[in-house]
C-alpha cells in the first residue's frame, strides 16, 4: 500500500490540478455542522467549476457509527455516485475516519481526498491509510486499510480551533516524539506557547515521523503497532467517559493513556524511573494535573481493554516505551499489572 501524497506546499493548486487531470461529474464533500460554516467556503472558492454535492453529518465521536456511515452510503447511492466519483472529507478525525471508510467500501471503493481541519486529523487520523468506525461502544472496530488520493494540509484551518481542540491534537505530536524522535519531543515540550503559529513548522515533522513508520509496515503487522502507544488505555478511557456528561476528546484520553502506559513500562522494568519522571513532567508542563480515574472505574476499564484489537487470544498486548524516542510493541501484560498501573496513577494524581 503506497503512502498518499501529503501536500503542505501550494495545497490549493495541487487539488485544482488533481481535478484537471481526473475530471469527474460527481464530486461529493463530506462536512459536519462546523466545517460547513468555517471551511466549506474555501473549498468552493478553490474548485469554482465543480458542482460540489454536500453531505452533512453530525460531529462528535458518538456519530462515528454504522448509522452515520449508512447515511453517507445512501446519499452516494441516491445521487448516482459511481467508481469515478470522488469524496472529499473536510473535517476532523472522526469525519476523515468515517469518510474514508464509507468511500473505501462503497462499490468496493471510490477515490477520496482528506482535507483535515483539526490538528489531530492533520497529524494522525487523515494520514496513514486507516479508516474506520466504532461498533458497540468499541473504538475503530470496523474499518479498512485504504490510502486517500492525497491529504491536503491547510494550517489556516487551525485558527478555527479552540485551545482544548488544539491540545487534543498536540497529544499525538507528543506521542510521535516519545515513540520515535526524542528531538521532536524536546522541541514540543520546550515551546512556551502551543498555538497554530508555534506548531506550524512541527506539524510536517510529526506527519513525516508517522509516515516513515507506516511506509515500513503499512498493514500494522509489526513496527506500525508502536503508533498505538497510549491508545490501549486511552481508547478504553475514552470509551468509558463517552457516555458520561463530561466526555473526553480523543487527545485528552490519549494523554492519560500515555501517562498510564509510561507508568506500566516503568513497573515492568522497561523504562527507567528518571525517564518516567521526565515524561510525566513534560505532560504536566502542558496539560497540568491529569484527569482522575476513580477506583470504581478500574473494572470497567479492564473490560474495555479485553476488547482491544491488538490482543492475542486472551492476552492483553500493549506498545510500551523503552526510553524517550524508542518504543516496543507486542508487550504482553496481565490484568493484575494493568490494575497496578491504574493504582499507581491514582496514587500520583488521585
Word description of this protein:
With 350 residues, this protein is α/β, with parallel strands linked by helices. The mean pLDDT is 95. It starts with a strand and ends with a helix. The strands form four sheets. The protein has a four-stranded parallel sheet. A two-stranded parallel sheet has the order 1-8. The chain folds into two domains: 155 residues, Rossmann fold, CATH 3.40.50.1970; 187 residues, Up-down Bundle (Dehydroquinate synthase-like, alpha domain), CATH 1.20.1090.
List the topology elements.
Layout: E1 5-7, H1 11-21, E2 27-31, H2 33-38, H3 40-46, E3 52-56, H4 66-78, E4 86-91, H5 93-105, E5 112-116, H6 119-125, E6 130-135, E7 138-145, E8 150-152, H7 163-180, H8 182-190, H9 196-216, H10 231-242, H11 250-267, H12 273-287, H13 298-305, E9 316-323, E10 326-333, H14 335-349
Parallel strand pairs: 1-8, 2-3, 2-4, 4-5
Antiparallel strand pairs: 6-7, 9-10
Q: Helix count, per DSSP?
A: 14
How would you characterize the largest beta sheet?
4 strands, parallel
CATH superfamily of the largest domain: Dehydroquinate synthase-like - alpha domain
Strand line-up across the major sheet: 3-2-4-5
Low-confidence stretches: none
| Global mean pLDDT | 95
Portion of residues within helices: 40-55%
* Cα-atom radius of gyration: 20 Å
N-to-C SSE series? EHEHHEHEHEHEEEHHHHHHHEEH
Amino acid at each position: 500500500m503506497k503512502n498518499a501524497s501529503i501536500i503542505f506546499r501550494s495545497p490549493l493548486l495541487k487539488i485544482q490540478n488533481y481535478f484537471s487531470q481526473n475530471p469527474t461529474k460527481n464530486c461529493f464533500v463530506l462536512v459536519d455542522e462546523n466545517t460547513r460554516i468555517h471551511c466549506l467556503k474555501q473549498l468552493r472558492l478553490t474548485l469554482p467549476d465543480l458542482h460540489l454535492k454536500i453531505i452533512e453529518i453530525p460531529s462528535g465521536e458518538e456519530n462515528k457509527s454504522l448509522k452515520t456511515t449508512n447515511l453517507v452510503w445512501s446519499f452516494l447511492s441516491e445521487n448516482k455516485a459511481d467508481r469515478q466519483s470522488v469524496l472529499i472529507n473536510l473535517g476532523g478525525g472522526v469525519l476523515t475516519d468515517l469518510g474514508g471508510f464509507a468511500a473505501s467500501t462503497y462499490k468496493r471503493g471510490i477515490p477520496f481526498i482528506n482535507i483535515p481541519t483539526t490538528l489531530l486529523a492533520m497529524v494522525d487520523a487523515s494520514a496513514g491509510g486507516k479508516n474506520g468506525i466504532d461498533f458497540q461502544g468499541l473504538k475503530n472496530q470496523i474499518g479498512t486499510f485504504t490510502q486517500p488520493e492525497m491529504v491536503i494540509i491547510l494550517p489556516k484551518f487551525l485558527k478555527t480551533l479552540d485551545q482544548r481542540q488544539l491540545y487534543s491534537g498536540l497529544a499525538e505530536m507528543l506521542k510521535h516524539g516519545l515513540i520515535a524522535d526524542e528531538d521532536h519531543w524536546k522541541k514540543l515540550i520546550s515551546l512556551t506557547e502551543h498555538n497554530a503559529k508555534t506548531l506550524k513548522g512541527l506539524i510536517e515533522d510529526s506527519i513525516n515521523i508517522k509516515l516513515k513508520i507506516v511506509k515500513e509496515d503499512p498493514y500494522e503487522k509489526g513496527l506500525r503497532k508502536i503508533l498505538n502507544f497510549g491508545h490501549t488505555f486511552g481508547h478504553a478511557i475514552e470509551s468509558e467517559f463517552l457516555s458520561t456528561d463530561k466526555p473526553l476528546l480523543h487527545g485528552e484520553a490519549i494523554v492519560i493513556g500515555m501517562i498510564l502506559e509510561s507508568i506500566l513500562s516503568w513497573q515492568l522494568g522497561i523504562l527507567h524511573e528518571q525517564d518516567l519522571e521526565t515524561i510525566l513532567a513534560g505532560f504536566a508542563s502542558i496539560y497540568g494535573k491529569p484527569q482522575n480515574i476513580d477506583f470504581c472505574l478500574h473494572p470497567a476499564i479492564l473490560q474495555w481493554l479485553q476488547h482491544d484489537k491488538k490482543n492475542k487470544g486472551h492476552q492483553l498486548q500493549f506498545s510500551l516505551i523503552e526510553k524517550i524516542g524508542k518504543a516496543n510493541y507486542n508487550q504482553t501484560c496481565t490484568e493484575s499489572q494493568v490494575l497496578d498501573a491504574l493504582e499507581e496513577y491514582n496514587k500520583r494524581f488521585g
